[in-house]
């Protein structure tokens, strides 16, 4: 449905996006994930039309929209700062796009009611000036405004980043529902991996103007395609190969001599395993340096020959004291190794 | 909001309408080439003066419009059949305007600037040749240029507070002001240099020190004199009135143009000692001229009006009401008695005023930059 | 392939064409009305036979009077920037930051100098505080030893210009104060920081950009001070602009004026560039996403509150007093005025009668009203357009455009007017061989030229506050650029647009130095009528009419302000 073809975007001499090729299917909840400055918002803005690529084409439904005017693209957008029109009421904000697209008066009124109920805005709130609303309500207006025109594609640029954590979580759920109800293709930009993993059907991880990996949340989590993705997603420990000298047992078939380091996720580091499984695990001697108890999970930090390793475990039977000696177990399958 | 916009629109439209009507008038005068289509040699003044006013609207620029004189003139002129738009401007501003607009004038008759201001207008080729019927009656009062004619004689008079001075103790001459310490700080000096009166005072002083070998034609002694004149005088700031200061005695000596004397005396309730200096008063005439016009009817009406304005009856009545010293010999008897007395007693300073006026801008610049 | 380039489908080609068209129109406007006339005048005055005349330059700069006046002008500009900021910040805080009794009256008083400025106001100061002034007469009776000329010289000029200069300053700064996020103040308070420290450490720094903009305007006002030093400067404190204008008035001394104008322009540009550079290095943006509007602070300690309240009201009285006197003077005879006698029994309507019975009658009122309104609307509209281009496309071309549009700030209006009259009195090819001198168009064009720099600056500041994503949102919802602008952006800018319009309008009502050259003889503006009444050839009685014209100007200004702000209030609810 949406296709980026060899897209390059430059700001002066600075190349923000290089050789981007990406396809997004109809009805997807697709997320651009990456640290700030990686080019994810730039790509989004190129799709909407605020930025013109210096090279390449952008296709929507097999139409080349690279040179199409913004106002004719029919892509709904929710802005990070909401970008509500301050001189208008909530209703006027939502009506704006409908009026600009010459909807009939009756149809406008009906549609406003519809989207208002989708985002949970009541009649009283519709009459208010947008400046009188709270941040969360303003964000609902912004979403309603983007939904009103029934666009096939809705893009959301870090829409929850200005809200507090609790509101963020509840709105996140609503967003998912709204997407399912409207059936629109959504493209979601965020730097928050939790948002990306929970919401998306697929994720593109951006770094330094490149897409490092495209895949479902699970693919990205379990099979990161690059060191960057490994580091960026999840809680990941880097193990210098040097450290493996301290292994309690030796593994003749384990050859990491061409590596400098390997990765292991925090949840893959355990301090107890069943005896019969031992064969598959590497064993490292460690000293407990910190423990945080979260209820469902417990996070511990260990010191292994001067290197800090973090673990997350659900089943933790024994209490430990800082300074206790422990043996850490890492399943060999869980070592993430990239070719030298 | 909508109302505001509609009001704004109305304003814009009304300007458009005004502009259009202005344009139509303009188109009357913009026909023909820029130097004027009226053939100079073909003007038959006598025939034009003999005809009745045709009622064309004339724009008269004058520095004689204050204190109801505009109404007086407009009424009198309309009785005579003239239709006037009177524009009140200072002499300098009027002159600058006529010169700047030489290629495309918006005015028709200029009444009031001095002869040297008219000389610059003539030089800028802004005026039309004009010879009034009363040319003989004002003969010899100024250098004839064939374009502008005097209607008023304008000596600059030194005046003193009658309580502090008698005719004996008052200064006898400008030189006394800076040479005698008793007058130091007691006389007002010019503070601006674009007015006729101020320039005439400076000219009157420097005229006594002309020296072809000196800087700008003035001897060193002359420059010292003018420096002493300014340094020992009082520079009346704006917001004070020099004549008021004279009347109240704070700065008991000042100067004025003759036509302002009566009015100022009335304003400040004082009858000052008028000093008739030994070398005579710096004097110029104020004149009437006709601006070039491209429309024959307007041009002829302008000539008729200028001729009418300077005639003995009209200018005599004007002088009687406002205290002017008339140029027209036939109107002398109509002058205010006090001013007639002044007219009889004063002596015009004898000097090469043409030369002085030609040097005046440079002198003023030097005074502004180095002396004042 | 060729077909793809057809206009309707090729968005980029359309864009390019639009750019060329706009560039041509703006370029033509600037060339015709700004660059050509002024450059031509400067060329003809400074060059003879293609050679720069060096002698006049040396003459000008070796004159000790010029040197002293220049020095005075810059001292004045710097001091004024300082004092206007101090008084202006005080007034802004009194109006919007602290709870002070009598807020409404204070607000009116602090803005009062807007409606009457220039020569008439200065004269009013002089008739109140000057040597023969009313208050001076009272004071000297109480303290016989005091110097009657106490209100003269540098300090008098500085005080008058400070009191009449803050109204513009506070209009700019108040908006910035309203934009402060109250949470930042609360945050500081919650950290236990004392109110005065909060003010200095939190509030004032956020006002910096607006203070900066206001300071530049004040600096330029100071450098180009004309009326005040002439009246109140006395013999000891002469500034440069009166000299420039008197040089500009006569043909043979005009080159001195041009030299000085260029010099002043260069120095001002240097000062502005330097300060812009400093400002840009310390730029910041508000980071808060959810702003809470400012709430007024109570001054808890009565020891502070009472003196501050008294001071605030005292300043208000000082600002309004001269205006009040202008109205009184308009009912007086010249004799009484110069004698320093106010007697209500002797008040008369004679001055008013003379004005309305003159052949001009009330026509100048209507003329100025229309001219000022039309020019103000036109220049605001044009600068909204150009300002948008300048803020949207930041490149060398737009920077040059912006710099060129500042030119009228550095040239005396007299020179601009002369340049226009002389250029447009002959047919010019770039104007389709039309002659503009003597038409009704010349004066509004002139008004627009002199109001260009100020308008552009204010409009640009307004644009700077716009959130870019609002525009993007509108376009994203299907509005064309034009509709986005009209329906979304303009309503947000509207309060600023109205203020700029109003300030231009009021400023132009009494404009003289440009008007006197450009007005159509049949349509005299108020400024010309006012100054003709007060010309050096006029008698003192005639000069009294200038107060009547000033009262008329104040009346129109006040009515316009009431009219516009009533509406503005309704828009904002």
Question: Mean pLDDT of chain A, as a whole number?
Answer: 89
Largest sheet report of chain B: 9 strands, mixed
Strand order of the largest sheet of chain A: 6-7-8-3-9-10
Low-confidence stretches of chain A: none
The beta-strand count of chain B equals: 12
Estimate nothing, just give the exact number of structural domains of chain A.
Answer: 2
Largest interface: B-C, 79 and 84 residues
By CATH, the topology of the largest domain in chain B is D-Maltodextrin-Binding Protein, domain 2
List the helices and strands and how they pair.
The complex is a heterotrimer of chains A (340), B (372) and C (573).
Chain A: E1 2-11, E2 14-24, E3 29-33, H1 40-48, E4 55-60, E5 63-64, E6 75-78, H2 90-100, H3 105-118, H4 123-127, H5 135-148, E7 153-157, H6 165-182, E8 185-190, H7 193-199, E9 202-207, E10 210-215, H8 217-222, H9 227-232, E11 236-240, E12 261-265, E13 269-270, E14 281-293, E15 298-304, E16 307-313, E17 325-331
Parallel strand pairs in A: 3-8, 3-9, 6-7, 7-8
Antiparallel strand pairs in A: 1-2, 1-4, 4-5, 9-10, 11-12, 13-17, 14-15, 14-17, 15-16
Helix pairs in contact in A: 2-3, 2-5, 3-5
Chain B: H1 2-30, H2 45-50, E1 57-62, H3 69-79, E2 83-88, H4 91-100, E3 109-114, H5 115-123, E4 127-128, E5 148-160, H6 174-179, E6 188-189, H7 196-206, E7 210-215, H8 220-231, E8 234-235, H9 242-248, E9 253-257, H10 258-268, E10 273-275, E11 283-291, H11 296-309, H12 312-322, E12 325-326, H13 337-345, H14 353-371
Parallel strand pairs in B: 1-2, 1-3, 6-8
Antiparallel strand pairs in B: 3-11, 4-11, 5-9, 5-10, 5-11, 5-12
Chain C: H1 11-46, E1 47-48, E2 51-52, H2 54-62, H3 64-97, H4 103-111, H5 119-129, H6 134-142, H7 154-178, H8 182-190, H9 195-223, H10 227-232, H11 240-249, H12 254-281, H13 302-329, H14 334-339, H15 350-357, H16 363-392, H17 396-405, H18 407-410, H19 413-424, H20 442-464, H21 468-476, H22 481-509, H23 515-518, H24 526-533, H25 540-543, H26 545-572
Antiparallel strand pairs in C: 1-2
């Amino acid at each position: 449905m949406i296709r980026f073809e060899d897209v390059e975007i430059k700001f002066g001499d600075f190349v923000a996006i290089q050789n981007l090729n990406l396809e997004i299917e109809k009805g997807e909840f697709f997320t651009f994930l990456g640290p700030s400055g990686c080019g994810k918002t730039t790509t989004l803005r190129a799709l909407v039309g605020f930025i013109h690529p210096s090279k390449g084409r952008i296709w929507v439904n097999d139409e080349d929209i690279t040179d199409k005017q913004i106002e004719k693209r029919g892509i709904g957008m929710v802005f990070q700062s909401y970008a509500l029109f301050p001189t208008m009421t909530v209703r006027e904000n939502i009506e704006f796009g409908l009026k600009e697209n010459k909807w009939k008066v009756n149809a406008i009124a009906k549609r406003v009611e519809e989207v208002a109920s989708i985002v949970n805005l009541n009649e009283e709130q519709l009459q208010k000036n947008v400046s009188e609303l709270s941040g969360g309500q303003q964000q609902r207006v912004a979403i309603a405004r983007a939904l009103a025109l029934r666009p096939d594609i809705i893009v959301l640029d870090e829409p929850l980043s200005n809200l507090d954590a609790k509101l963020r979580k509840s709105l996140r759920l609503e967003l998912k529902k709204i997407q399912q109800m409207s059936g629109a293709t959504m493209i979601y930009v965020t730097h928050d991996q939790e948002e990306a993993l929970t919401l998306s059907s697929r994720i593109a991880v951006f770094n330094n103007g490149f897409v490092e990996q495209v895949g479902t949340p699970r693919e990205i989590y379990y099979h990161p395609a690059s060191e960057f993705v490994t580091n960026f997603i999840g809680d990941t420990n880097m193990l210098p190969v040097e450290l493996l000298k301290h292994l309690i047992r030796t593994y003749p078939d384990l050859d990491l001599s061409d590596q400098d380091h390997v990765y292991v996720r925090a949840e893959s580091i355990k301090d107890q395993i069943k005896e019969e499984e031992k064969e598959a695990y590497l064993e490292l001697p460690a000293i407990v340096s910190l423990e945080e108890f979260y209820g469902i999970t417990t996070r511990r930090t260990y010191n292994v020959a001067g290197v800090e390793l973090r673990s997350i475990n659900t089943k933790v039977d024994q209490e430990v004291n800082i300074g206790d000696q422990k043996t850490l177990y890492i399943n060999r399958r869980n070592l993430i190794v990239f070719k030298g | 909001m909508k109302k505001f916009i509609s009001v704004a629109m109305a304003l814009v439209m009304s300007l458009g309408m005004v502009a259009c009507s202005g344009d139509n008038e303009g188109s009357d005068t913009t026909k023909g080439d820029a130097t004027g289509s009226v053939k100079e040699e073909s003007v038959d003044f006598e025939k034009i003066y003999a005809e009745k006013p045709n009622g064309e609207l004339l724009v008269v620029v004058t520095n004689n419009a204050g204190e109801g004189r505009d109404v007086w003139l407009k009424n009198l002129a309309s009785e005579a059949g003239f239709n006037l738009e009177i524009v009140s401007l200072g002499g300098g501003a009027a002159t600058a305007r006529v010169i700047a607009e030489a290629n495309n004038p918006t005015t028709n008759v200029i009444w009031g600037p001095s002869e040297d201001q008219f000389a610059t207008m003539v030089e800028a080729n802004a005026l039309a040749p004009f010879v009034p019927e009363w040319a003989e009656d004002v003969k010899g009062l100024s250098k004839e240029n064939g374009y502008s004619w005097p209607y008023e004689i304008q000596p600059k008079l030194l005046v003193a507070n009658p309580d502090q001075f008698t005719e004996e103790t008052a200064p006898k001459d400008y030189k006394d002001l800076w040479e005698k310490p008793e007058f130091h700080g007691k006389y007002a000096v010019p503070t601006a240099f674009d007015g006729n009166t101020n320039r005439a005072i400076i000219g009157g002083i420097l005229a006594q020190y002309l020296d072809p070998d000196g800087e700008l034609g003035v001897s060193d002694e002359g420059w010292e004199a003018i420096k002493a004149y300014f340094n020992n005088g009082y520079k009346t700031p704006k917001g004070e009135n020099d004549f008021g200061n004279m009347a109240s005695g704070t700065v008991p000596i000042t100067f004025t143009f003759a036509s302002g004397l009566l009015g100022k005396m009335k304003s400040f309730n004082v009858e000052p000692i008028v000093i008739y200096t030994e070398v005579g008063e710096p004097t110029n005439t104020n004149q009437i001229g006709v601006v070039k016009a491209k429309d024959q009817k307007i041009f002829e009406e302008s000539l008729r009006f200028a001729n009418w304005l300077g005639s003995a009856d009209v200018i005599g009545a004007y002088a009687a009401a406002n205290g002017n010293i008339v140029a027209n010999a036939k109107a002398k008897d109509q002058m205010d008695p006090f001013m007639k007395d002044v007219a009889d007693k004063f002596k015009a300073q004898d000097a090469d005023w043409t030369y002085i006026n030609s040097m005046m801008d440079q002198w003023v610049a030097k005074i502004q930059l180095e002396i004042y | 392939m060729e077909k793809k380039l057809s206009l309707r489908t090729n968005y980029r080609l359309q864009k390019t064409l639009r750019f060329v068209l706009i560039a041509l129109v703006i370029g033509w406007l600037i060339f015709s009305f700004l660059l050509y006339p002024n450059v031509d005048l400067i060329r003809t005055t400074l060059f003879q036979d293609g050679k720069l005349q060096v002698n006049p330059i040396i003459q000008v700069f070796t004159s000790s009077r010029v040197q002293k006046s220049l020095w005075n002008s810059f001292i004045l500009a710097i001091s004024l920037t300082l004092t206007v900021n101090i008084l202006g910040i005080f007034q802004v805080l009194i109006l919007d930051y602290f709870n002070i009794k009598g807020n409404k009256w204070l607000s009116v008083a602090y803005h009062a100098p807007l409606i009457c400025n220039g020569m008439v106001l200065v004269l009013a100061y002089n008739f109140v505080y000057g040597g023969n002034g009313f208050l001076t007469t009272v004071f000297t009776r109480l303290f016989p030893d005091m110097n009657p000329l106490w209100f003269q010289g540098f300090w008098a000029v500085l005080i008058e210009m400070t009191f009449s200069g803050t109204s513009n300053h506070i209009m700019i700064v108040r908006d910035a104060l309203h934009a402060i996020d109250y949470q930042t103040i609360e945050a500081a308070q919650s950290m236990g920081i004392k109110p005065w420290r909060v003010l200095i450490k939190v509030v004032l720094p956020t006002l910096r950009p607006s203070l900066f903009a206001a300071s530049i305007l004040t600096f330029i006002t100071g450098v180009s001070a004309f009326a005040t030093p002439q009246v109140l400067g006395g013999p000891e404190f002469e500034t440069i602009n009166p000299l420039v204008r008197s040089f500009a008035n006569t043909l043979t001394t005009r080159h001195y004026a041009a030299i000085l104008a260029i010099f002043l322009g260069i120095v001002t540009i240097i000062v502005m560039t330097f300060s812009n550079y400093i400002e840009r290095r310390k730029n910041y943006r508000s980071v808060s996403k959810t702003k809470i509007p400012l709430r007024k602070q109570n001054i808890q300690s009565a020891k502070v509150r009472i003196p501050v309240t008294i001071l605030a009201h005292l300043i208000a009285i000082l600002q309004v007093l001269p205006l009040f006197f202008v109205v009184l003077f308009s009912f007086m005879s010249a004799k009484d005025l110069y004698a320093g006698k106010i007697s209500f029994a002797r008040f008369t309507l004679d001055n008013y009668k003379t004005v309305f019975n003159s052949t001009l009658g009330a026509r100048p009122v209507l003329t100025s009203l229309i001219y000022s309104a039309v020019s103000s609307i036109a220049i605001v509209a044009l600068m909204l357009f150009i300002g948008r281009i300048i803020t949207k496309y930041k490149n060398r071309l737009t920077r040059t455009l912006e710099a060129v549009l500042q030119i009228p700030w550095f040239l005396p209006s007299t020179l601009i007017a002369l340049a226009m009259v002389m250029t447009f009195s002959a047919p010019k090819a770039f104007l389709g061989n039309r002659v503009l001198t003597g038409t009704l168009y010349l004066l509004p064009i002139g008004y627009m030229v002199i109001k260009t720099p100020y308008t552009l600056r204010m409009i640009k500041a307004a644009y700077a506050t716009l959130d870019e994503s609002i525009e993007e949102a509108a376009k994203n919802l299907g509005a064309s650029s034009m509709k986005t602008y009209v329906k979304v952006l303009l309503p947000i800018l509207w309060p600023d647009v109205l203020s700029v319009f109003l300030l231009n309008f009021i400023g132009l009502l009494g404009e003289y130095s440009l008007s006197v050259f450009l007005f159509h003889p049949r349509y005299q503006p108020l400024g010309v009528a006012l100054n003709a009444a007060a010309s050096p050839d006029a008698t003192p009685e005639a000069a009294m009419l200038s107060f009547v014209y000033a009262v008329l100007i104040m009346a129109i200004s006040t009515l316009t302000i009431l009219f516009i702000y009533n509406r503005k209030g309704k828009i904002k609810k």
